[in-house]
Amino acid sequence: MFQRESWVIGYLRDNAPEINYGTFLMPKGPRGWGTIGNMLGICVPKSSAHKKEAWA
């Protein structure tokens, strides 16, 4: 199981049609559904003039 954005469904359909997969809603908690974020791909270029501010 993995959690990804909705565009992945179309990507798998177009680029990996042999993969057998399913989709489902994430479980609802006591206060309803929430937002889940991830930190993949966040970086500050070495050449950035504002490295310190970027991580603030």
TrEMBL record:
Can you name this protein? Answer: Uncharacterized protein
